[in-house]
Amino acid sequence: MKTITVAVVGNPNSGKSTLINALAGTALQVGNWPGVTVEKKTAKMQINGVLINLIDLPGTYSLSPYTQEEVIARDFLVTEKPDLILNVVDATNLERNLYLTVQLLELGIPVVIAMNIFDEAKKKGYMIDVEKIEKLLGIKVVPTVATKKDGIKVILSTIQQIAENSELYKPKKLNYGEDIDMVLEEIEKTVKSTHRELANKYHDKWLALKILEGDQLILNEAGLEGNEPFISRAKNHLSKTHKEDLETLLADARYGIAHGVTQEALKKKNSEKLDITERIDKIVLNRYIGIPIFLIVIWLVFKFAFDFSAPFTDWIDELIFGPVTRWTVVALNAVHSPEWLISLVSEGVIAGVGSVLVFIPLIGIIMFILTLLEGSGYMARVAFIMDRVMHAIGLHGKSFIPMILGFGCNVPSIYATRVLETERDRKLTAMLCPLMSCGARLPVYIVIIGAFFKSYSATILWSLYVLGIIMAVVLGFALKKTLYKGFTPVFIMELPPYRLPTFRDLRIHTWQKLKHFVVKAGTYIFAVSVLMWFLLNVSFGTTKENSFLGKTGKMIAPVFEPLGFGTWQASSSLVAGVIAKEVVVSTMAQIYVGETLSEELNSQSTFVDDIRETVVGLGKATEDAFLNLFSGFGIKSLSAKEEEENSLLEERLKNVFSPLAAYSFLVFVLLYWPCIVVGATMKQEFGSWKEYGQAMLIHSIMAYTVAFLIYQTGRLIGL
Amino acid sequence: MKLTELKIGQKAKIVSINTRGLIKRRLMDMGLIAGTVIEIEKIAPLGDPIDIVIKNYHLSLRKTEAETIVVEEVK
Lengths: 719, 75
Prior knowledge:
The complex is a heterodimer of chains A (719) and B (75). Chain A is α/β, with parallel strands linked by helices and 719 residues long. Chain A is 63% helix and 8% strand. In chain A, the strands form two sheets. Chain A has a seven-stranded mixed beta sheet with strand order 2-3-4-1-5-6-8, with helices on both faces. Chain A has a two-stranded antiparallel sheet with strand order 7-9. Helices cover 17% and strands 39% of the residues of chain B. Chain B has two helices and five strands, in the order E-H-E-E-E-H-E. Strand 10 (492-495) of chain A pairs antiparallel with strand 4 (57-61) of chain B, so a sheet runs across the interface.
């Protein structure tokens, strides 16, 4: 069967991903471009006996490499040479979109234009003469409305026709103006005689253009220096006849073509009234009420993400650690399994699966919200409003969203770094997010504050959150000067029109992310959970002290002596905290208080009871989720059993920690290595364990240093 | 005059961009070409960045970059 490769190229915000989703449907595969954090979507489909291999290139404004996305798009087009380019053009923003089209036409690869968002353009009073554009450029232009799947069939059949019969593709020669055209022709002639191989490999005009532009990759391949007589002659000629530099001349010429086509093909009905986007922005970006509105939006995002998902998370948690564990134990007992196997399955395997599954509601809801923010256009406004603040600490305005999510949970923060435009910004933000004190650290704070700082609990709690933010600023500065130095792409950002994302896009994007989390990140989280079971349970005696974890704790305890908590119990708890920071508390409870008989495992309920309860529980969770939306923020109240356990633990802790050591311990828990779930997410997003390794090391050193300073200073002043 | 000297609602024509390399190319790629008319639409609530209308779309850039763009007022 004939196979054709089609690259989909277009400006950001041109509705490209909606078009891809509409074209590919369930055939869509989402992954990363090799070695980078840029999303790559592909799909294979069969139309009338032709196999179409669709490859989505990152959204780009131009083929001159600026961001990593643009480098990827350019490299793919130049080296992989797809059979056809499907250029998605935003009909409401014709001129700037056609500027990219001009550069695509230079490549000599057949181009088909999807004139997208055609409905909105019509509504704005834009009359676009599609046939005129076809005639001026000599290529096929198909009007589409990707959100409604309009024009999708025509696109596919046009692609297929051109792929089968290249005679159908007759692009017009692009006119850059007399002088440039002349020097290009001369370069073309010279290159054809001196570099025949290269001339065969690339389109003649493109090759000449790149040599004139001094494109390093092409010059290297041709073995040219860029100052050969025929190149210098061309450059000299242009600098004599024009006062601008070469780059400006070419950008002028390309925009000249785009402008010419737009002038001819676009007629605007005069409409005096402001369009919807401008009306919304008048309010949303207003000098006085812009920030209050922004704060409300962020509050709603937070509310939805964490308060709405919490009851579902609890429901999954109860289901897995209640009925699922209980009945598995019953089943294993029925076949007379040995004690260790029952423990491994219930506390290792099921707990491991559970620790992945509990994240599903949270990640699903946050991905949904992020897609909504991005697709609607509000994300760009967040960046616009917050850039002043984020820029001060060396980040992009868009970093605000991942950072703020970090206060709920650091895992979705890592996913949210995708909204950033460059890999550097993504990684730098991911390194700082774990310093936002997440919800899992709260149980640790509550227990320790309850034991030592009851009378000024709010101040102590507040001080920890603020310390986290301060350390993020400090670390941000340090990393910018060391690991993340180099060229920083500046803030030159389009404020796209507000649009309502389609449900299809929201669903596909959310589903893809969830799948990746469960399958890819989930594997690692599961593995670490099982490993921790071994550490906790394989023992050389019968006491916790002699388990692997206890031994490890004992071994590293002296390290923590200068911080005030050099006991094996404290250090074992910290090691176990790699699974999740709240595990620090549960491990402490196990060690200090000892096994409390879990009532749930001994409950007398029948299988049917459990199923009924689980279903009822889901209904209750849904109800709670909606109720939570209307309630204020609050720390979830603890159950009576947890209270009792906590108060026992608090009593014990009072005997082993001094208040100063307790505070030092809190600071250490706040700042030390991010949990394995964050690590597995980083690995999945950035493609290697390097970033998590760096984060573990850097954060732990920072935690140690700060806790050390606090404890030692405290001792000096006699606390 | 510099782009940053314009007031909100004022229109101006781009004369030149006084920066080099990647940033200049990016600005040109986004449509900031000599002769193009732009309008200052608004300034962010915290004073930076600014929002300009160019070629019928909204572009935001920081004052640092806007300073390098030379314009002349259009009456």
